[in-house]
Amino acid sequence: MRIVLVGPPGAGKGTQAAYLAQNLSIPHISTGDLFRANISQGTALGRRAQEYMKAGDLVPDEITVEMARDRMSQGDAAEGWLLDGFPRNLHQAEALDAILAEESVSLDAVLDLEVPEEEVVKRIAGRRTCRSDSAHTYHVEYKKPQAEGVCDVCGGELYQRDDDREETVRRRLEVYHRETEPIIDYYKTQGLVVTISALGPVAEVTERAMAALRREA
Ligand code: AP5
Ligand code: ZN
């Protein structure tokens, strides 16, 4: 399956993507995680992306599209993928259409996670992220690790993301409404959007998402 996950910052895209990708046996491709891995490895791409991310702005399309295209061309992505955080504006959505056309494949669904803004702010404020490239995600209240500050999955150190400060979160929400929301209408005209509520326990949201995707398949 080829699925795009959309939703505001903190909606739970990364959290759900990990479970959905496992259930569907497809790779989870997160442009945010790819950027953060590049930053921690000190690559040229990471250095270019860092200032935009820190400000809560989008990284320029030419950098982002090439990175996404490159990841989608890897062997494990031949039969499908779950895209998390890409595309993020209309230009990227058109670029993805061009990539799909080159491969003669198409999207199966765009899963839209709906969550009120006050919940998003609570989720982001309590988020802790694992330093490993897999970026396992926790929450100080809703998804506690077994040992404080340590990832259950890989033992990595948990930290608070640079862009999770309150003023940056506000900026990211603004950018989401202005740049990313329009892609939902773009995909609606193609009949691809399934919207689910992202409220409630993580496992319930996963079940809701799986049921919605089964209806689309
Ligand atoms: P990115 O990493 O994609 O961040 P985002 O879209 O802002 O999304 P988040 O990672 O903040 O949230 P999420 O929805 O994944 O929520 P999570 O599962 O962690 O992008 C970061 C930056 O990179 C961008 O600002 C931009 O600069 C750049 N970038 C990335 N892609 C780009 C692109 N395509 N073009 C240009 N620039 C790009 O959950 C949040 C918290 O809530 C966690 O603590 C979690 O444990 C908790 N939680 C999850 N589900 C539940 C639940 N059901 N109940 C209670 N708590 C929950
Ligand atoms: Zn980890």
UniProtKB/TrEMBL annotation:
<dbReference type="Pfam" id="PF05191">
    <property type="entry name" value="ADK_lid"/>
</dbReference>
<dbReference type="GO" id="GO:0004017">
    <property type="term" value="F:AMP kinase activity"/>
</dbReference>
<feature type="region of interest" description="NMP">
    <location>
        <begin position="30"/>
        <end position="59"/>
    </location>
</feature>
<keyword id="KW-0547">Nucleotide-binding</keyword>
<feature type="binding site">
    <location>
        <position position="200"/>
    </location>
    <ligand>
        <name>ATP</name>
    </ligand>
</feature>
<comment type="function">
    <text>Catalyzes the reversible transfer of the terminal phosphate group between ATP and AMP. Plays an important role in cellular energy homeostasis and in adenine nucleotide metabolism.</text>
</comment>
<feature type="binding site">
    <location>
        <begin position="57"/>
        <end position="59"/>
    </location>
    <ligand>
        <name>AMP</name>
    </ligand>
</feature>
<keyword id="KW-0808">Transferase</keyword>
<dbReference type="Pfam" id="PF00406">
    <property type="entry name" value="ADK"/>
</dbReference>
<feature type="binding site">
    <location>
        <begin position="85"/>
        <end position="88"/>
    </location>
    <ligand>
        <name>AMP</name>
    </ligand>
</feature>
<dbReference type="InterPro" id="IPR036193">
    <property type="entry name" value="ADK_active_lid_dom_sf"/>
</dbReference>
<dbReference type="InterPro" id="IPR027417">
    <property type="entry name" value="P-loop_NTPase"/>
</dbReference>
<comment type="similarity">
    <text>Belongs to the adenylate kinase family.</text>
</comment>
<feature type="domain" description="Adenylate kinase active site lid">
    <location>
        <begin position="127"/>
        <end position="163"/>
    </location>
</feature>
<feature type="binding site">
    <location>
        <position position="36"/>
    </location>
    <ligand>
        <name>AMP</name>
    </ligand>
</feature>
<feature type="binding site">
    <location>
        <position position="161"/>
    </location>
    <ligand>
        <name>AMP</name>
    </ligand>
</feature>
<feature type="binding site">
    <location>
        <position position="31"/>
    </location>
    <ligand>
        <name>AMP</name>
    </ligand>
</feature>
<dbReference type="InterPro" id="IPR006259">
    <property type="entry name" value="Adenyl_kin_sub"/>
</dbReference>
<keyword id="KW-0418">Kinase</keyword>
<feature type="binding site">
    <location>
        <position position="92"/>
    </location>
    <ligand>
        <name>AMP</name>
    </ligand>
</feature>
<feature type="binding site">
    <location>
        <begin position="10"/>
        <end position="15"/>
    </location>
    <ligand>
        <name>ATP</name>
    </ligand>
</feature>
<comment type="pathway">
    <text>Purine metabolism; AMP biosynthesis via salvage pathway; AMP from ADP: step 1/1.</text>
</comment>
<keyword id="KW-0067">ATP-binding</keyword>
<feature type="binding site">
    <location>
        <begin position="137"/>
        <end position="138"/>
    </location>
    <ligand>
        <name>ATP</name>
    </ligand>
</feature>
<dbReference type="InterPro" id="IPR000850">
    <property type="entry name" value="Adenylat/UMP-CMP_kin"/>
</dbReference>
<protein>
    <recommendedName>
        <fullName>Adenylate kinase</fullName>
        <ecNumber>2.7.4.3</ecNumber>
    </recommendedName>
</protein>
<dbReference type="InterPro" id="IPR033690">
    <property type="entry name" value="Adenylat_kinase_CS"/>
</dbReference>
<keyword id="KW-0963">Cytoplasm</keyword>
<feature type="binding site">
    <location>
        <position position="127"/>
    </location>
    <ligand>
        <name>ATP</name>
    </ligand>
</feature>
<dbReference type="InterPro" id="IPR007862">
    <property type="entry name" value="Adenylate_kinase_lid-dom"/>
</dbReference>
<feature type="binding site">
    <location>
        <position position="172"/>
    </location>
    <ligand>
        <name>AMP</name>
    </ligand>
</feature>
<keyword id="KW-0545">Nucleotide biosynthesis</keyword>
<comment type="subunit">
    <text>Monomer.</text>
</comment>
